[in-house]
Amino acid sequence: MATENTRRYDPLTAEVVELIGEVVARFHDDYDTAATAHSLTGAQARLLTLLTLEPLPMRKIAERLKCEPSNVTGIVDRLETRGLVERRPAPTDRRVKLAAVTPEGRQVARDLRDSLQFAHEPFAELSATERVLLRGLLRRMLGEGAGESEGGSGREGV
Q1: How far is CA 154 from CA 25, 120, 144, 145, 157, in A?
Q2: CA dihedral 49, 53, 55, 61 (to 10 degrees)
Q3: What is the three-state SS of 9-36?
Q4: Which end of the chain is less congested by CB atoms within 10 angstroms, N or C?
Q5: pLDDT tier at 8, thresholds 50, 70, 90
């Protein structure tokens, strides 16, 4: 009787895992190159992009970026100095400070996203139907609902 572990790591699954790893590595390289071109570190670019979705407290940023809150404070400080991020009180609890992207920061994040090469090129080779299928499969792998319409995911800014 095959165990679940042996079923998960059949040759096809192993190849898919390797391919996903290569896609992720290339995306990170591309992202870091684009960040450097905008005088940002990769961490600063990721934080800035994250904040284009919504203002967040430092603790939530640290959770999402999988780093220590003290690191987030330093990154926010540097982005704030450049006028790309600002701190503001949370509307529900004024003792909590949120990091929020400024209009200039939103534009830098948009320019950075638009300058990504690897993130765009492979998708140009796929039809709209194939991209919708891929999106659904990825959502399913992540445990998210795959039933949204073709129109949008709400994640276009990421």
Answers
A1: 24, 18, 13, 13, 8
A2: -60
A3: CCHHHHHHHHHHHHHHHHHHHHHHHHHH
A4: N
A5: low
CA atoms within 13 A on the CB side of 50: 22
How many CB atoms within 10 Å of residue 127? 8
The C-alpha atoms of residue 90 and residue 74 are separated, in whole angstroms, by: 20
The residue-averaged pLDDT of 101-125 equals 89
Q: What's the per-residue H, E or C state across the chain? A: CCCHHHHHCCHHHHHHHHHHHHHHHHHHHHHHHHHHHCCCCHHHHHHHHHHCCCCEEHHHHHHHHCCCHHHHHHHHHHHHHCCCEEEEECCCCCCCEEEEECHHHHHHHHHHHHHCCCCCHHHHCCCHHHHHHHHHHHHHHCCCCCCCCCCCCCCCCC
Closest CA to 148 of 140, 120, 122: 140
